[in-house]
Amino acid sequence: MAKTYNIALMPGDGTGPEVLDEGVKVVQAASEREGFSLELTHYDFGGERYKRTGEILPDSALEEFRQMDAIYLGAIGHPDVKPGILEKGILLKARFALDQYINLRPVKLYPGVETPLKDKGPEEIDFVVVRENTEGLYCGAGGFLKKGTPDEVAVQESINTRKGAERCLRYAFEYCRKRNQEKTLTLCGKTNVLTFAFDLWERTFEELAKEYTDIKTDYAHVDATCMWMVKNPEWFDVIVTDNMFGDIITDLGAMIQGGMGVAAGGNINPEGTSMFEPIGGSAPKYTGQNVINPVAAICAGQMMLEHLGEESGARRVEAAVMKTISRDMKSLSAGKMGHGTREIGDLVAGYVRQG
Ligand code: IPM
Ligand code: MN
User: Fold this and answer.
1) Which residues lie closer than 8 Å to 82 by C-beta, 6 or more apart?
2) What is the CATH number of domain 1-103+292-355?
3) Which of 89, 99, 105, 177 counts the most CB atoms within 10 A of its CB?
4) Could you report the per-residue pLDDT of 123-161, keeping only the tens digit for each?
5) How far is it, in rounded angstroms, from Cα 134 to Cα 330?
């Protein structure tokens, strides 16, 4: 019998719904081609619902998400809602509550895509960042003392647990082992200053390295990692790092792979429900104009298929994205693609059907 996957769709804010529509169009095309089916359930959490009802992301929705095979997200962030409310209340809440302890972010330059890096091409820019996704500075630990007075103190602590670092590092070693022949895992940290947090990370990394003797290991401070990502991105195969550093270096990664229009990520709980998203945000100023680039959302859909075990479908989607980029798209920037959002979705879905 054909397999059916239960997918929660969370289009969210701004251009989120537009790009997610195209992502769904493409994964549907892949499902028809491969003979599996998708049972889609819509959730309208985001700025509009919050403004209307005050509801952000109720526990009952999280309970439903736990029963799903995956969550497919558009974007979170509304211009009329104070920054932080929706991001923390929806995105971070889902990541934490569903224990999506990995944020997997490929940095891959497709042929025909312009990168700001001189003399670098698809050969050089092809690595993956494994970002820890449930600890570090994102825990919300800390607080104020004497807030609003001249003696004010603000403390924001980075929480690093042995268990949290170990499961993230283990995932990175395993991922590195199956990714390609390079088999190089770089720990990105700051052992020269953050001598507690990254001491724990480094010791755990070195211990695990003894189990994974087929993997070459390397270490780079986060500042140097930024430098090498620009100067010699070909040095990287898989980078593993903490939550905050992972957030920062993956925006740099998105830029060198051609911009936010192509950057996708997966919030992964290998034992639970994972959530896939374009990482570019809601880009509210482009809402409803059919100009935003849906490729990142489509690539998030590809990652979702791969995660579900539909590897052949995922490969079809990637091949179709590459075809669309090299044959049909003038640029990856909003409004300059040479086609509208929906037309790009149609082109990719068409190639998936033909391929
Ligand atoms: C990301 C985003 C989020 C993060 C924000 C919106 C909370 O920047 O997914 O990278 O910091 O993780
Ligand atoms: Mn970010």
Assistant:
1) none
2) 3.40.718.10
3) 105
4) 999 999 999 999 999 999 999 999 999 999 999 999 999
5) 38
d(CA 319, CA 313): 10
Side-chain-side CA neighbours of residue 214 (13 Å): 11
Please tell me whether the overall predicted TM-score, pTM, comes out greater than 0.90 for this model: yes
Q: How far apart are CA 40 and CA 262, in angstroms?
A: 24
| Nearest atom in ligand 1 to 247's CA | 10
Domain ranges of the chain: 1-103+292-355, 115-257
Quote the ligand 1 centre to 280 CA distance (angstroms): 9
Which residues line ion ligand 2, judged by CB < 5 Å? 247
Mutate to test the pocket of ligand 1, among 92, 104, 139, 245 (most ligand atoms within 8 A of CB): 92
3.30.420.10, 3.40.50.720, 3.40.50.620, 3.40.718.10: CATH of 115-257: 3.40.718.10
Helix (H, G, I), strand (E, B) or coil at 68: coil
115-257 and 1-103+292-355 share a CATH fold: yes
Protein residue with least CA distance to atom 9, ligand 1? 279
